[in-house]
Design a protein that fits this description.
CATH architecture of the largest domain: 2-Layer Sandwich
Distance between the termini: 64 Å
Number of helices: 3
Radius of gyration: 20 Å
Shape: globular
Helix content: 10-25%
Structural class: alpha+beta
Largest sheet: 7 strands, mixed
Order of helices and strands: HEEEEEEEEHEEEHEE
Length: 246
């Protein structure tokens, strides 16, 4: 009976958004560590330890983490319900209570990783993807950020490099950089607003990088007020856009 209730609850939860702040939990496995977080009495799977080229960057112990994700289909991973897509933002303030490490357990394994355990950043060779047609005309490139942060991660650097390369190749007449800050709506109804001045800082940082890559015709703007939150697509609003117009 209890198993039936559990399965029913899993079905009801499927597709629901989960936005919450919690301490990350590290579960050791025979391959790589898994990262989990607890909310409302349930464990959620965040990701595994990998190199900087991966989309998921593990949170830090001794810091809370803002988790924004949608309950995904499929079995539990590392003992937690999977969230996909998922956004993880580390809270800057130290919380010494966030220090939970779980030992390996039989039957709880990490999912396959592009690389094995260890610090190596090398990835195995994979089959070449289908070539994409070359970009033409006006193009918009979007750089995303963690909540309340202006740090540019690996994926963001790749976007900036792509924008600069296209601007040079197309002989862009105009490159407009626009910065934004946003609001996040938590599952409990609380609203978190990114700090004032962050939109300008994000935009100016990206403009500086583009100038360093050889662009000069750059217009920089930002929106002082925070973007509204809807509890569904909030991570996409923490951004800088680079619009390249040939």
């Amino acid at each position: 009976m209890r198993l039936g209730l559990f399965l029913l609850g899993a079905v009801v939860a499927l597709g629901q958004q989960r936005n919450f702040i919690s301490c990350p939990i590290v579960r050791d496995t025979k391959t790589v560590p898994c990262f989990l977080a607890e909310y409302d009495g349930e464990l959620y799977y965040l990701g595994i330890q990998q190199d900087i080229t991966n989309e998921f960057h593990p949170p830090q112990l001794k810091h809370e983490v803002l988790v924004e994700g949608r309950v995904a289909d499929g079995p539990r991973i590392c003992g937690g319900i999977p969230l996909k897509p998922i956004s993880i933002s580390v809270v800057k303030e130290v919380n010494l209570a966030c220090n939970t490490l779980l030992p390996p357990e039989p039957g709880i394994d990490a999912p396959p990783a592009p690389r094995g355990a260890g610090p190596s950043s090398a990835r195995p060779n994979v089959a070449a993807s289908t070539p994409r047609p070359p970009l033409t005309g006006r193009q918009e490139f979007t750089v995303l950020y963690q909540f309340n942060d202006d740090y540019l991660e690996y994926a963001g650097n790749a976007v900036v490099n792509a924008a600069a390369a296209y601007a040079k190749r197309s002989g862009a007449a105009n490159v407009k950089v626009s910065g934004y800050r946003a609001t996040t709506v938590l599952s409990n109804g609380d609203r978190l607003v990114e700090k004032a001045g962050l939109a300008e800082k994000r935009a100016q940082n990206i403009a500086t990088l583009l100038r360093g890559l050889g662009l000069s015709n750059i217009v920089v703007e930002w929106k002082d007020g925070p973007e509204p939150g809807d509890g569904q697509s909030d991570p996409s609003r923490r951004r800088v856009t680079v619009v390249v117009t040939p």
